[in-house]
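Predict the 3D structure for this chain.
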Amino acid sequence: MKRTIATLFTLLCLPLYSAATIKPDIPTPIELSNLEPNRILCPIGDHVSQIVFADDKPLTVQYQNTQAFLQFKHAVVSDETGNEVERLHYSESTDLYAICGDDVYHLVASPKAIRGQTIRLGDPGLQNIRNTLADFRQLDIVDRAQHIVERAYTENLPTSWQVWNERKEPLDQFDQITAHHRRTIEAPGTGLQLREYVIISKQSGVELTERDFIHPPFTHHPFFISLVDHRLQKGEQTRLFVVERVR
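Done. Predicted structure below.
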């Protein structure tokens, strides 16, 4: 962000399968397509080295780069002339063992007449933390706070960050401004979260500073505050970013 951020340091010191977590060694029920190929992905940094299943299961597996593609075979029923009259798709529960690095994931697959599925193994919350820490590894906590503000200001948020869009009533108890809590953003693993507000002036010539927003209802644990514009005319608006420590 090219413009200078005014700061106040308050040192108060394929469809993705919907299962939240697939952990190693724990049997996990999943649904797979018995019509189309299904994709298996290891946690980032690992690759699928092998998928093990019983010999009598009608399955084929292809490995490509870090992922594997799994498809159920079907049986064809023909009439006396050799013309196909029916396809029988496999529907019995199937135990699969996917090997990623040193971990083995036990999947209890139910074949269904659905679209091909993407199964992402591992704990997505843990992966989000790893992804975030990779971005922040070289930054101290003050630089981390400013980095979070810059990302929010430019609407360039990593997919590993968590965003909650707020739908609370406007904060309208002030004489000069109305404040709307737009969203809360958390960068997992950093110990910081950001609260973004839209500030709208009720009067002309309103002068604001970061110190105006260091108390509730804007924050309870302020660490870093940035206000984009400090002087507003009536009806004008600006953005306020409040970074807090997560406790």
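The longest strand covers residues 177-187.
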